[in-house]
Amino acid sequence: MTDHDDDLKPLAIEGKLPLKAVGIENLKEDNPKHMPPHRYLHPWFARRPTPAARIAILASILPKGVSSNEILKLMQIGPKVGIDGDIADYVESKKAQEDERSGTLGEHYGYDRPFTSTPTSDEISDLHETLRDFWDGELPKVLDPTAGGGVIPFEALRYGLPAEANELNAVPSLILKTLLDYPVSVGHLRKELQKWAAEIDSVASDSLSEYYPDNGERGTPSHYASTYAITCPNCAARVPVTPKWWLHRKSSNKGIAVRPSYEHGDLELELVELPDDVTKEEFNPQDGPRARGGDLECPNCDIVTESSDIKEMFKQGDYEYQILGVKYTKEGGNAFYRAPTTEDKNALEKAKARINDDMGLFSLLTEDVPPTGEKTSEPVGYGITEWRDFFNPRQLVTHYEYWQAFEDVKEEILETYSDKKAESIVTILALTAGKMIDYNSRLSPYKVSKGYPENAFAGKNFTLQWIYVDNNLSSGNRSYEDMTSRIMNSYEDIAGYFDGVDPTPAKITSRDAADLEQENESIDSIVVDPPYYSSIMYAELSDIFYVWQKRYVSDIHPEFFQSDLTDKDSEAVANPSRFEDIAGRSSSKKELAKGHYENKMSDIFSEIYRVLKPGGSMTVMFTHKETDAWDTLTMSLIRSGFVITSTHPITSEMPDRMDTQGSGSADSTLLLTGRKPHEERDPENAVPTLWSDVEADTRAAAKEAARDLLESGVSLTKTDVIISAFGPTLRVFADAYPVVDDQDEEVPPRKALETAREAVTQILVDEYLEGMDVDNLDDVTEWYILCWLVHEAETFAYDDGLQLGHGIGVDIDEIKRSTKTWRKSRGDISLRGHSGRVQNINEKPEDRSSRLPVDPDDLSFPRSLDAVHAAMHVYDKRGETETIEWLRERNFDSDSQFKSTLKALLQVLPHNHEDWELARDLAVGRTSDVLDLDFSPNVFAEGGDETSQSTLGEH
Fold this sequence. Notes:
This protein is an alpha+beta fold. The chain folds into 3 domains: 333 residues, Rossmann fold, CATH 3.40.50; 177 residues, no CATH class; 186 residues, no CATH class. It contains 30 helices and 24 strands. The chain has a 7-stranded mixed sheet with strand order 15-2-1-16-17-19-18, sandwiched between helices. Strands 3, 4, 10, 11 and 14 form a 5-stranded antiparallel sheet that branches.
């Protein structure tokens, strides 16, 4: 801490923390088969791992000097007995041996995952004694003002701390009640929940049986694999708008599918099993009528209807619901598949007629879907105008009947139990509505590899599925019984965590985090996982749950359901769609959204500052990678008066190994801690510091942080090393704030972050590009190589590529058209390989595409990347012998820049990328004699079959 912070009693988070061990536990928790129970209560869009939340809480309230071993023991990391030395070393050694283990992870490590373990009463007693000594005789109050799914206050509660949680959105507010209140105030409820869930299921199932016809031998339908059908404008045939014909794909050429035919004029679907009934060569179920770009080829006449015309048909309602196939169960629970029957089609029509005839259904979910929402605009473009439109007729009837059955038993529950117990039973049962929506809507994908539904919001978007699931909630996998069982089991696990522990239920409020209920200077520690700029549109995505939950429990929780839809105005996200109507020449909607987010976060941090006691701490868990988000966060902190005292990066999610079409990288969480000084600071009236005096310190801080991380073995990707260096950089900037340039203009934090990015990128070049000096390459080639080095993927955020370009003087928008080195993909950058840049040498010059900028017949090239891509193309099309002549004719056998570029690409490209394989072929064999390249054996290591470069912790 700096000199002006001397009056702040130092906290553990301002010292050294066992980051690698905690990161290992985060990765162990990231297992979809065995997640913490709170994740199964209801769909939510962002949750931090338990270990990350625990260390953020504990390190923010424990005094500096508490050992790593003590912190890890409190976090339930490490065996209870048999460890005399350093627990962190033990955990790291076990991680290194993980691939060689026999048995489960728990058996290998000698202890269970931390989320399964609540500290013992003795551990909590000792912790409380330490905390009371440090916090003047009282236990510190811990507040999360944007609590979301609730992991932070939940973990504070498990340590017996006075926990408080605030959340603007009604949907997660119900999760918070189930997580932070009822397990403590009411306790176990298994018998009660089972009783009433069974009654709801029985009543609804009876009402729905006519819509899921059971034809004896054919069994009870559990899932309908569903799509849509349009009338072909050419031949008037019924054409399913499906990309595939699979019902259950067991391998690329084995499985169950439906085969279309038009022998009798109408569409008929026949069930076939590959390869027994038909081979893939005869009929490929992978080739459905709908192409990747959305065009539709009629299987009857082969005429293509363009995607724009399809979209207009949907908007006008010129489509029908089409059943592709049926998964059904026979007595004993065995699953089978069949083609749809007349009875199946009639049942769907019966549901459609019911909606028109039943006033309760006719008026159900008629609230308008926001037409210009960031996430809703795509479905609206396909005719989704009311929330009911997200469901086909049978889905809507199904959800309605379960709601009506819930309403019937709700009255009985309220009459049978005390107010609090009745409230808890009703609220927990109402959570099932969210799970039913997740697995039974036009947004719910049909997983052909398994033959059952996937959840609708894995991609955090409203995306209409061209093969979706019409799910029978009374039968089979993902039934009502299955969903309520998951919720009950999760709730019982959570309640069990408090057995023998006697905490007070958390205080839960539902309001704008910029207008908290807490009194001035009443909170000791705030740990917050704030909304991430533009990553997730929480309110928009929540609306589909909100409109149902309002119907289920608005009478039980009127404080949560005051409006038709969720509160978008008070939400802290950068949502450009909200500014569609007011953007103009002076400000784009993106700039207005950024300004709104910055102002909102500043208001939230100012409010946090108000309720925090002098000397109190605020730890922000931040994961976002865009510079804009960090720039906004920093300005908000500084203007609120906080002193930034520490930053720590922790691996928080499993590093993805995605293919070259993906943009995956490991996600690390940065813990950034600010303290409220005892004496108010006035940053706006402080004496300015010149940027020229701050720049060198900024660069040095970033480089030091990067080197420390590279030496630490913490498993972070290269992108995350850059992000992690932002913390120390921002501390330097905040201490110097306000910062001005030579013209006395204020310098934003963004400038410091750009400087940090440049500095760390150079560290990464030195570390990973063996013997390379990329500064000697032309700017475009250097930018291209650095993009692959840093992002380890073909597709990544536009802002990241823009910042890399700024660092070396490349305007990436200016080079986009002329060099074709990259293209935009859903707003991101997607790098092009040689095949997207080089003209076909096997075609006559006059027949070649003029859109491709690289002519392989040229004798010289403006960029070394062009030359190497051309060489790859020649090798691919003409072979080794002609490539040798081609290289010598252009003197590339003695061109240092050509060789440096080829060598760099071999070191940065994923080994399964076509360009890497061609670069390897150029570097070995007879062409290697011409180029005479010197390589470390690591370049051709066996890890090359992986789809991305190694993470830093693997070196």
